[in-house]
Design a protein that fits this description.
The complex is a heterodimer of chains A (310) and B (299).
Chain A: H1 5-22, H2 33-46, H3 49-70, H4 82-90, H5 103-136, H6 138-151, H7 160-166, H8 171-196, H9 199-207, H10 212-249, H11 255-264, H12 268-296, H13 298-306
Helix pairs in contact in A: 4-12, 5-6, 5-8, 5-10, 5-11, 7-8, 8-10, 9-10, 10-11, 10-12, 11-12
Chain B: H1 3-14, E1 32-41, E2 48-58, E3 63-67, H2 74-82, E4 89-94, E5 97-100, E6 113-116, H3 128-139, H4 144-157, H5 173-185, E7 191-195, H6 203-220, E8 223-228, H7 231-237, E9 240-244, E10 251-256, H8 271-294
Parallel strand pairs in B: 3-8, 3-9, 6-7, 7-8
Antiparallel strand pairs in B: 1-2, 1-4, 4-5, 9-10
Helix pairs in contact in B: 3-4, 3-5, 5-6, 7-8
């Protein structure tokens, strides 16, 4: 027993400074997730970041306001100013019939969101397994990857006519087009994720007696996870890209459709409302994916937390 | 030096050798016989000859340290024993059974020979205890609960309590190496294959690690095959030190280090230790020069 003590003491000495530097409330060998979250928020509020962010927004809106409504710069003459957009957006009785009070507004958001979700889930459900297989089996990659690389550069817009011919109605072609770019991003990142895994981990697993299938589930899948989630974040981003392109071509609802119709009907403030709404919804979905990633990769979140503020 | 450690060292010098109380003489196992092993990367005719006519023994229940310049082919040898690489010719026996040889160029990796890797290979996505319990679980030897219980005991024995639910990224690299060795020992391996495990550590941490390894050895008497390019480390740890030539690698000098175990850091200043060092430094240096002249690079 006594002979173990020195090393144990050394172990504790090794650990102590790390815990101190993480400054998670004391006694917290295992601070609850809520505590950690509250701590993070309070740290964030104490850092200059939120205030700098605010300054950024004020500068942006200020420039927009000055350029359009005060200086009336030539390029900006047709553009609606921020006061016009914001008052339209928040008005219970909007001039062009669309604001946060109109149910139609939420209809557009819902329809777009639903399309993106379906496309994203399909892309993930197909892209992740395909990527894992491409990274795991050299033979499979040799068959499939060249075809994949040939199809990948074709922009979703080039698929529009074919999508309309191939699929019934207007909903499925839109979802298909939204799916495409997402699928490429997810597959490619997953494959790179598998290829990025240090061979030592795979060897260690075999050494410890794992079978091929166990190596796949215990090493390949979790090892590729960081890349997979990077891929998924790119994937939701490009899903919104191609969604809007697809909605501008066909459809009855959706934010892309809204932007396009308000353009043709010269309802410029509504058009800008549509754009900002896309920005907000797009941001929220990718933040959601990031949160899900952190939740599923506790090990990584904790590693980064110890690394400090980065 | 940390006063607690100093006290501990003094205690262990003064005290009679603690007989390995926890393990009553297990049958010694893990003897490796390497005979005429040749490994050529690429084609037989104009490939790179990494190992050439290499013959030596790794005695059971001892620490054998292989020293050689970087990139000399020591790791190739280790990989052949572990079953990661094939050999071109020759044979390697483990406890009298052929691991690899004629008609079977590549050994099958398995839990009787566990590698501790240069850069560490604890799975970052598993907690410490999940890592340590991994072997018996995937082999189907123990249930999850049994494996966890055993892992807890082994971690405590190694002085690694309170780390169970941490992830490897949260503990120091020195601790990670020790957890990795514990993970290996969970499988009761015949031999531990250590591939320059302390290379990336600073010298202070290294000295702590050396003592911890020796302590582990004293407790388990497991056969250890240890690769390094650090001669002092080799003599300090090894019962037997095999000095390798630069590529192609073969034993240049085999040294039996006659300093009794358990050893601690007082050995480093002992006269006998210095003599061994003097005896071998020239040989190692000569090979290092050759390697340097040949422009060997890290792999």
């Amino acid at each position: 027993m006594t002979e173990l003590e020195p090393t144990y003491a050394a172990a504790q000495a090794n650990l102590a400074p790390r815990k101190a530097s993480a400054t998670i409330p004391d006694s917290a060998d295992h601070a609850s997730r809520l505590e950690v979250a509250a701590y993070r928020v309070s740290q964030w509020l104490r850092s200059p970041r939120p205030y700098l962010m605010l300054v950024g927004f004020v500068l942006f809106l200020g420039f927009w306001y000055l350029a359009v409504e005060v200086w009336k710069l030539p390029r900006f003459s047709q553009m609606p100013g921020p006061t016009a957009v914001i008052s339209e957006w928040l008005s219970p009785d909007p001039t062009y019939g669309l604001s946060i009070y109109s149910p139609e507004y939420y209809q557009h958001i819902w329809v777009s969101w639903r399309r993106v979700s379906i496309a994203f889930i399909l892309a993930t459900a197909m892209g992740v397994p395909l990527g894992l297989l491409l990274g795991w089996s050299q033979r499979f990659k040799e068959y499939v990857f060249p075809v994949f690389e040939l199809l990948r550069p074709i922009p979703p817009l080039a698929w529009v006519p074919l999508a309309i011919i191939m699929f019934q109605g207007s909903e499925t072609p839109i979802i298909f087009l939204t799916f495409l770019a997402s699928f490429y991003a997810t597959t490619l990142n997953t494959m790179l994720g598998v290829e990025s895994i240090d061979v030592s981990f795979i060897r260690a697993a075999y050494c410890l007696g794992a079978k091929r299938q166990q190596v796949f589930w215990h090493v390949i899948v979790p090892g590729a996870m960081p890349f997979i989630f990077t891929g998924l974040q790119i994937s939701v981003g490009v899903a919104w890209f191609s969604l809007v392109a697809a909605e501008m071509v066909s459809g009855q609802y959706g934010l892309g459709y809204l932007i396009n119709t308000s353009y043709t009907m010269v309802q410029y403030p509504t058009m800008v409302i549509g754009m900002f709404t896309l920005g907000v919804v797009g941001y929220l979905t990718s933040a959601g994916v990031r949160l899900l990633g952190n939740y599923m990769m506790q090990w990584r979140a904790r590693e980064l937390a110890i690394g400090g503020e980065r | 030096m940390n006063p607690e450690r100093a006290a501990a060292c003094e205690r262990s010098i003064a005290a009679p050798l603690p007989a390995t109380s926890s393990s009553p003489e297990k049958p010694r196992r893990g003897e490796i016989r390497i005979a005429d092993v040749i490994k050529i990367y690429g084609s037989e005719a104009n490939g790179i000859r990494a190992v050439d006519k290499c013959t030596f023994d790794v005695p059971a229940g001892k620490i054998t340290v292989v020293v050689g310049p970087s990139g000399c082919g020591k790791t190739t040898l280790l990989n052949a024993i572990a079953g990661f690489h094939s050999i071109t010719s020759g044979t390697i026996h483990l406890d009298g059974k052929v691991l690899c040889g004629a008609g079977r160029p590549k050994a099958e990796p398995g839990p009787d020979r566990i590698v501790v890797f240069q850069n560490g290979a604890l799975f970052p996505w598993k907690t410490i205890i999940e890592n340590v319990a991994f072997g018996p679980i995937v082999q189907g030897r123990l249930t999850r609960r049994q494996a966890f219980d055993q892992a807890r005991t082994m971690l405590a024995e190694a002085g690694l309590r309170n780390l169970e639910s941490n992830y490897p990224g949260e503990i120091s690299s020195g601790m990670r190496r020790r957890v990795e060795i514990t993970r290996a020992l969970m499988n009761d391996p015949k031999v531990l294959l250590l591939d320059e495990p302390y290379r990336a550590l600073d010298s202070l941490t290294k000295s702590v690690m050396h003592e911890a390894l020796l302590e582990t050895f004293d407790r388990n008497q497991v056969t250890i095959f240890f690769i390094t390019h650090d001669l002092e480390e080799a003599i300090f740890l090894g019962h037997r030190v095999v000095i390798m030539t630069t590529r192609p690698c073969r034993p240049k000098k085999v040294l039996t280090v006659d300093i009794p175990h358990p050893r601690d850091y007082s050995v480093l200043t002992a006269k006998r230790f210095r003599e061994y060092l003097d005896e071998t430094a020239a040989a190692v240096h000569e090979e290092a020069l050759k390697a340097f002249a040949a422009g060997e690079r890290e792999r």
